[in-house]
Design goal:
The chain has one domain (17-113). It is 63% helix and 0% strand. It contains 4 helices and no strands. It has helices at 19-60, 69-84, 90-102, 109-114. α1 (19-60) crosses α3 (90-102) and α2 (69-84) crosses α3 (90-102).
Length: 123
């Protein structure tokens, strides 16, 4: 004779799952993480634009206005657009340089990130 217990209703533990609550909780987790990822991506793009503008202002232009600015921006823009897309068109490079001039020191980084979307310099 076997010592095995028979499968009777008393031997099974009833698990009740509220599927709607499960769906809502998991949906909230997904939405929160997607929003956070978007915020972090926007932060990095903003800092990238600032850094590009700062590099243009300091290294290329030497913080001076010169007649060859147009040529530098045009040449650089063509190459950058080819490699990285329309975000680096000539007019946007000018805006990046202006942006970096408005916030000349890196210590202003957090202030850049607090700007309202309506204050955005980029198209």
């Amino acid at each position: 004779m076997s010592n095995r217990k028979k499968n009777t209703p008393e031997n099974h533990i009833a698990i009740s799952i509220d599927e709607n609550a499960l769906f809502k909780t998991i949906s909230k987790i997904i939405e929160n993480r997607k929003n956070r990822a978007g915020s972090l991506a926007n932060r990095e793009v903003t800092l990238m634009y600032w850094e590009v503008g700062r590099y243009i202002n300091i290294s290329i232009l030497g913080e001076k206005r010169a007649e060859y600015n147009k040529q530098i921006f045009s040449t650089l823009s063509r190459k950058l657009v080819e490699k990285f897309g329309k975000s680096f068109e000539r007019e946007n490079l000018y805006r990046m340089a202006q942006f970096a001039k408005l916030f000349p020191a890196f210590r202003y980084g957090p202030e850049i990130l607090k700007a309202k979307s309506s204050d955005c310099f980029f198209v």
